[in-house]
Amino acid sequence: MCGAGKGDSPRLFFYLSGDACRKERGLDSMAQIKASDLTFCYEGSYDNVFEHADFQIDTDWRCGLIGRNGKGKTTLMGLLAGKYEYSGSIRGVPECVYFPYPLGEGPKGLTDGMTMEVLEALDPACELWKVCRELELLGVDSEVLSRSFSSLSGGEQTKVLLALLFSGEDRFLLIDEPTNHLDREGREKTAEYLRKKKGFLLVSHDKYFLDRCVDHVLVLERRQITVMQGNFTGWQEQKKRRDLHEQAENRKLRREISHLKEASRQTGEWSEAVERTKIGTRIGGLRPDRGAIGHKAAKMMKRAKNTQRRMEDAVREKEGLLKNLEIAEELKLYPLSYHGGRLVQAERLSLFYGERPVCRPVDFELLRGSRMALTGGNGCGKSTILKQILGAELRMEGKLYVASGLEISYVPQDVSHLSGSLLDFAREQGLPGHLFLALLRKLDFSRVQFEKDMSCLSQGQKKKAALAASLLTRAHLYIWDEPLNYIDIFSRMQLAELIRTYRPSMLLVEHDQSFLEEIGAEEIAVSVCPC
Q1: Distance (Å, rounded) from C-alpha 296 to C-alpha 490?
Q2: Which residues are CB-contacts of 211 (< 8 A; sequence separation ≥ 6)?
Q3: DSSP state of 108
Q4: Spatial CB neighbours of 15, under 8 Å, sequence gap ≥ 6
Q5: Which of 49, 42, 44 is nearest to 6 (CA)?
C-alpha cells in the first residue's frame, strides 16, 4: 500500500486567527472540525502518514490545503470523509462530499450517457434546477445537460461536476485539485465562483488560483501543520520570516555546540594529563600521592562528562529546529546547444482530424534559448501541435519547420499509466539510476518511495518522475505538455528557478499564469476552429 515515510510524518499543531465566518449553505458558522492525537497508517505499510496530530478548522471557511506531493493531502480528506480507520479522534465532522466524483466506480457505461443522467446517477437527491443555477454562475450554458457527458471537454466536465457539488446543502465539501483540466479562462471563472462560496477544503497547487479564492490555509509542512487566516501568499511571507528566524537560531546553536565540544575536549585532556601524573618520577624526592591525584582526575572527568551531557542536551533541545524548513534544493539541467538559431517555425499552420480542423491557423517561431507557451481554451489543439512537432502525421495546411537533428525531451500530459519500479523506468529512458533517484530526492521523494511500484505513487509523484527523466536528458529542445498538473507549489518554485538559471529552449503547454511569468515565456494564443 502507498504511504508517506515515517520520517515525513508531520506532528501537527495549529495557529488560528480571525473571526468566524457566517453561515453559508446551511452549515453552522460556529461548527469546528477537531482532530486530537490522530494517527494513521495505510494497511500493509509501516510508515505513519499522520502521527499524534492535533488541529482544528471551521466548517464555514474557504480553506486551502497545501503541501508537497505525498505528504497526505488526499489522505487527510479521506479521513475527514470517514473513508479510513484511524486512532485518535476527529470530532465535529458534518456530512462530507469528495470531489472529483468517482466516475470510474459508477455503473458500466455511466459516462456514455446524457450529462443529466450522469449527475442523477452520482447524486440521486440532486435537483437539476439548482445545478442549472450553479452552471450559470460558472459561465456554462445549461444546454450541456442534454449532451453526452463523454462529449464534453475536460474543463466542461469539471464545471458540471462542480455545479453538482455546490447544488447540495448542509455538507462540507472536500475539493481535490479542480484546476487540472481547466484552461486559464476556466480557472479565472472557477476562482471567482469559489470566492462567493464557503464551507470547503480545497487542494490546489496553483498559487494564483489559491490567492483568489481562499480565506484560510491549512499547510502540511515537514514537521507540523499550520492553520492560519489569509491566502497562500500571506502564509508564504510569514513562513519566510519564520525560516529566517530559525536559520539564525540554528547558526547560534551550532556556535554553542562548537564551544561545548571544545570545552569538553579541553576538560577531558586536563583530566587525562592529571591522571598520567599518578605514575612517574618522584617530585622533590617524594612519591606522588596517587589517591589525591586520582580524586582530582575523577573530579575533572566528572566535569568533562557533565559538559558532554550539557552539549547532548542542547543538541536534543534543538534537534528539530530546522526540520520544518521547506528547502528547495537546486536542480540542474543539461541542455545541448543547437548549431542553428531557429528550432521550430509554424506558418499559418492548421491541423486536421480527418476532415475536421483542430485549430485556427497559428504562426510562431521558436529560437534557440527562448521559451514559448501555447495558450488557449480546452480542446483548441495545443497538445496536437506538440505531437505534430514530435512526429505525428496529421493532415495539415500551412507550413511546419522542425530543425534537422533536433534532440527533443518530451513530458506528456498523462502519466497515469506509469507502473513498475523507478529504476526500471530510468533504464527504459536510458538514464543512470543513481542520478535519477538523487534528482527525485531533490524533488522531495522520501527514500521509502523508491521501493514502491510506480502504480502506487500519487499522480504528482508520477509526474515528478517524468520531469526528472526529462531534466536528466540532454536535449536541444524541451517540450512539456501541462507539466505542472498535480505538482506541488514548492516543486513548481524549484522548476521555475531551474528554467530561469539554465534558460533552456522550451515549448510548453501550461495554464499556471504565475509560472509562465516567472520563467519569462512568450505566449502564443491558439484558438479552436469554429468550422
Answers
A1: 57
A2: 231, 232, 233
A3: T
A4: 226, 227, 228
A5: 49
pTM of the complete model: 0.70
> Which phi and psi (to 5°) does residue 390 adopt?
-80, -10
| Lowest-confidence segment of 46-50, 193-197, 295-299, 419-423 by average pLDDT | 295-299
Between residues 106 and 477, the one the model is more confident about: 477
Q: Which pLDDT does position 138 carry in this prediction?
A: 92
pLDDT band at 469 (very low <50, low <70, confident <90, very high): very high
Burial letters 516-529, b for 16+ CB under 10 A, else e: bebbebebbebebe
255, 239, 253: which is closest to 327 by C-alpha?
A: 239
The C-alpha atoms of residue 435 and residue 432 are separated, in whole angstroms, by 6
What backbone phi and psi angles, to 5 degrees, belong to 115?
-60, -40
pLDDT recorded at residue 183? 83
Q: Are 75 and 176 in contact (CB under 8 A)?
A: no
Q: Indicate if the pLDDT at residue 81 is higher than 90.
A: yes
Q: Which residues contact 436 (CB under 8 A, 6 or more apart)?
A: 422, 423, 425, 426, 429, 468, 469, 472
Residue in 468, 484, 475, 479 with CA at minimum distance from that of residue 373: 479
